[in-house]
Amino acid sequence: MTAVPRHRAIAADQAVAGQAAQEDVRALFGQSIAVFAALAGPAHLVETANPAFFAAIGQERARTGVAIAELMPELAGQGFIALLDEVYRTGEPYTGRDARVVLGVGPHAREAFFDFTYEPRRDADGTVTGIRVIGVETTQVKHAQRLMAEHRALLEQIARQAPLTEVLDGMARCIENLAPREVLVSVLLADPDGRHLRHGAAPSLPDFYNQAIDGIATGEGVGSCGTAAHRREPVIVTDIATDPFWVEFRGLAERAGLAACWSTPILARDGSLLGTFAMYHRTPRVPQDTDLALTRVFAGTAALAIERHHIEEAKTAAEARAKAAHDELTKAVRAERELRAEAEQRAAAAAELAARMRAAAAAQVTTPHPERCQLGGAQGCAEVAEIKIADSWGDSAWGCPAHVEEAILHVRSVFIASEELGGLAAYLNR
Questions:
Q1: pTM of the model
Q2: Are 101 and 7 in contact, with CB atoms under 8 Å apart?
Q3: Rounded CA gap, 361 and 214, in Å?
Q4: Phi, psi values for residue 251, rounded to 5°
Q5: What tens digit of pLDDT does each residue of 370-419 get?
Q6: What is the CATH code of the structural domain delimited by 24-137?
Q7: Distance separating alpha carbons of residues 230 and 196, to the nearest angstrom
Q8: Closest alpha carbon to 38 in 134, 137, 136, 124
Q9: 371 DSSP assignment
């Protein structure tokens, strides 16, 4: 086989990564689908509509031959029926941009945005007979744009080195607030050994739940997050009540009101585990392309924040070690200087003592040698003076061996001295 040049391989990898990013953006921003409906008469009866129109308002309301106000009563209080009346009366078209509308009522109501046009329909005489409604739903685009704006704000936080807990908590709240459907976000951080996961951020999960999973092991079958961390790949659990990965945590999830959990590992650039990014849901759910794209985008953001945090921690630790080493070196240099000064003082004292001894010895040379022992004290001693002793102060005397030995035992700093031989040598060779 022919080896692929390195620069071509890198280019290929970049192309694949770029394509994946574009697919994520397309999934988040969606594809525009035009909606159309033909309304007739002053009551605005729905004569016909395309499938996109009924998909937007709800398939359960997909019928024709009824007034739009009857089909969608929620429009009356939002000004849209009044706009239809105005276009029918004046024959002037109306165009709206990013118009907000609440579709449906009660728990099934949803916020939507549309770019739309109301165009009058006329007969051969030019009389207005109805209205054509043409529009494009921009809800997904609107939500995705808001998400991406929040995403840019998170990147700015990371760039200015905001605390990790602040970044992760803000990221979780951003996704929860802006996602089209209710979602509860959790980020767990891996221990340095990659064997356990610690609480990072989960602003909407109950405290008892966060405390219970703080420190869970990474491993096959340990919930969604433990398994995703172990496999280093996403784990999608669409129904916690029946999934075998959640056997040990099923009761805990039920207490917390959790029915689905999609977890994605957060990996560093070198492939090491940083943590997990999880999206919980109150009802069993299968992820859509938008959900998966959202997960990839924000899992990457979390990886950037965590890796940046680790770099700053390592930098701080290295600076602390360097300071400690510098402090120890300073102490060692100071101690070495003190020892050197002390040694110099001792050397000076020794030199001074040697000088005094030399001076004393020189003075003793001129002193006549006595015949009798000078160490007998008041009683005197008639023994022959054989040995000379002296001290460091320059005092000296001659004595017999017995008195010299007594003096050496009882008088400090006394040593044997002789002009002819070194003191001890003279004594040994007497």
A1: 0.55
A2: no
A3: 86
A4: -65, -40
A5: 888 888 888 889 888 888 888 777 677 888 888 888 888 877 777 777 65
A6: 3.30.450.20
A7: 10
A8: 134
A9: S
